[in-house]
Task: structure prediction
Amino acid sequence: MRTLVRTRTLWLFVSLALLGAGIFFIRQKSSSDASRRDTELINATVIGASMVPALYSGDEVAIDRAAYASRSPQTGDLVALMSPDKNELAVKRVRAVAEDIVRLEERALYVNNTLLAEGELAQNTQFEYGAEYVVPEGELFLMGDNFGATDSSLLWGFINQNQIIGKVLTE
Result:
């Protein structure tokens, strides 16, 4: 009987030691991966109508946190960030990058003299109507696809690339 108790105790001790070692290696591997920013995907659910028709409320997307580790976001990319005004996850499209020229008219938005949006735009904006703004180096101009129902750079101003969480993957 005593031998059985000793054997079980030894087995329990060895099992716990191996389990502890396994947890250590998993924890080490995870922190190492995070620092390298190897392809890390975050799943998210779209809430709201700012990205209609590209994305609808309830759509599932993946956010690739490593997508911009070696390159900058490009015009047309869908990106995720924490919205500056509500501190919640937001999905927006890159509309202008460094050195692009943004101009807001009464009911129209132009990027590099190309009409980008027409209709109802935000009334409270960081930009003066008629003035041209050059996107600074390292900054982005972001908007949703549904121009009338989006918080965007119109309200927030230019967004530093460091605020981008990752590239939104839709398929």
Remarks:
- Confidence is low (pLDDT under 50) at residues 3-38.
- Helices lie at 2-36, 153-156.
- The first helix runs from residue 2 to 36.
- The first strand starts at residue 41 and ends at 45.
